[in-house]
Design goal:
143 residues, alpha+beta
Length: 143
Amino acid sequence: MSTKKAGQIGVLLILSLTVLGAQSAERPDESDEDEWEKIFDVDEYDETWLVGDTRNDGRTDYALKRDDQGRKWFEAVDFNGDGLMDDFYLYSSGTLVRQELDTNFDGAIDLWIHMHDGVRVAGYERDTNYDGTIDLVKEFGDS
């Protein structure tokens, strides 16, 4: 193998490992994942959550849980005002890493949006026919 070709392979290997490392950094720790409470019924949020009524209709439609340093950890929103949370946000060290949505308001998540740096969409997964199985995956570049 030529020195030039070996150098190219080395560069590709380093780039691949860098991308994989960046992607794993975007995902929350397993411990965060295990403790993420997706609570759909707005009446089930306990005192560990800060809750609010953003519509001023007497019903909880926003809930927030903070980590030990006071940073956002979990967030839930009742987008359509039906008494069931349908937008869930997961943070790691205060940075948004994933949003999960119930887009058809049936009480089940059908869209998972993965974030890069808390701002840009890194990709998404979708259950397009609402059968509980992801059937569409889209990943975006790092730019």
